[in-house]
Amino acid sequence: MQQEFKNRLNAFQKERTFVLDKDRLQVWEAGMQIKDVPLRNIKSIKLSYEPTRLNTRNYVCTLDIGPEALKLQSTDYVSLANFRDNAEAYVAFVSQLLPMAQNANPYLKLKGGSSATQYYGSLAFLAIVLVLVILVFTLTGGFSWTS
Fold it and tell me: DSSP for 83-132?
């Protein structure tokens, strides 16, 4: 049974069609096949929530296929600051892909959430902002302990 999912990540990419068929994942762009990946060659699948200020309902599935990665997301880029929610089709496709990929590759790694670099980077950013806020308040007299 063939499962299809269409997705456009951003303004610089054309719409891609992902076709899941038996033991292969094919990727088409502008009517031409650009990838034909046997499911056994998928090394890992990462599911994450990656919102932006303009695209707050963005769930991402990243497939590690070796030297590069394929990315599918639950929203489609339409135009500047305009994204279409495609969650229903995304969930159906990814729900079909996961067990098929696991059956084809018993060593498949499933990952979720942010990477350690992103996590620690966000903590460092928050710490820097906190230090800057304390510094600004101290220099401007915002922390006046005397009356």
Answer: EEE-HHHHHHHHHHHHHHHHHH-TT-EEEES--HHHHHHHHHHHHHHHHH
Which segments of 3-47 does DSSP mark as H helices, in order? none
Q: Is the pTM here over 0.70, yes or no? A: yes
**Confidence band, pLDDT 50/70/90 cuts, at residue 72:** very high
Question: What is the Cα–Cα distance from 112 to 9, expressed in whole angstroms?
Answer: 20
**pLDDT at residue number 106:** 93
Size (the chain), residues: 147
Strand arrangement, sheet containing 59-64? 69-73, 59-64, 44-49, 109-112
